[in-house]
Amino acid sequence: MTLDDVAGELYGLDPGVFVATRTERAAAARAEGDRALAEAITALRKPTVAAWTVNLLARHAPTEIAALLDLGAALRSAQRQLSGDKLRALGNQRQQVVNAMTKRAGELAAEHDRPASEQVLREVGQTLTAALADPEVADRVRAGVLPTALTYDGFGPAGLVAITGGKASGSATRARRRAGPSQEDALATRRAEAQQELADAESALDAARSTREEAESAARQAKSDLDEVESRIAELRDALEHAEQQRHFARTAEHRARGESTAARSQFDRMQRWVDRARARLDED
User: Fold this and answer.
1) How many other C-beta atoms can be found within 10 angstroms of the C-beta atom of residue 58?
2) Is residue 272 part of a domain?
3) Interval 122-134: pLDDT, tens
4) One domain, residues 68 and 130
5) Per-residue pLDDT tens for 95-153?
6) How far apart (Å, rounded) are the C-alpha atoms in residues 116 and 136?
7) What is the model's pTM?
8) Where are the compositionally biased (Basic and acidic residues) regions (predicted)?
9) Is the dihedral of CA 232, 234, 236, 242 positive or negative?
10) How do 161-163 and 151-154 pair as beta strands?
11) What's the CA gap between 122 and 119, in Å, rounded?
12) Is 274 within the bounds of a domain?
């Protein structure tokens, strides 16, 4: 078991089972004595809805994803060559492909019972566009292991810029370092921090939800067991009451029968004595 194997599995799951499965895989790694792997697995962040949708797209439409990323390579090549006409043509094609892929991602999400909102689809489109700009982002999109959606600054003379967790790539990054952080950089950083906080909060919420569901399930089972025991007790009480009634009737019948038996025995004794006297008188005659 490697981190890549686990990441590939986790980011292909429905978000609802991500946390529980991550906990299981970390525990398995810990049981095998690989503490570093267990910690690395635990550090894997649950994907946002938009990131999960992109990961879903990567798994169910790999050919289309490959074509999209090939277009990104062509765009970067055209920019390096400063080919304006080619850039414009590829730029128009880029938007069409991104729109088509975003629509496909929405369809896949709906097929998996998680319809995407307009905001989620917007973030999916931004992430696909970022993958066109940055080879590193492209690799992560192709692998389908995104924890969060990504944004980009655009294709321009200063170079390609993709914001990935608050970091930029390309010549624009070097220019910004020389000029110092801009307001746009600060905004991107704050957004990345907010996304991180949201992802962490969602992960904690999922863990709490899992704990709550387990507790509620245990409570329901306990209530069911209690209802079953109480029902059995009620049945036994009814049976006991019926048995006590039968005992009372049997006791009354036994008492009556004993009295009748005593009376019959007395009657028999009297008749026997009568017979004995009659025989004795006959013998005298």
Assistant:
1) 23
2) no
3) 999 989 888 887 8
4) yes
5) 788 888 899 889 999 988 888 888 999 999 989 888 887 888 888 888 898 998 888 65
6) 26
7) 0.51
8) 209-227, 243-259
9) negative
10) antiparallel
11) 5
12) no
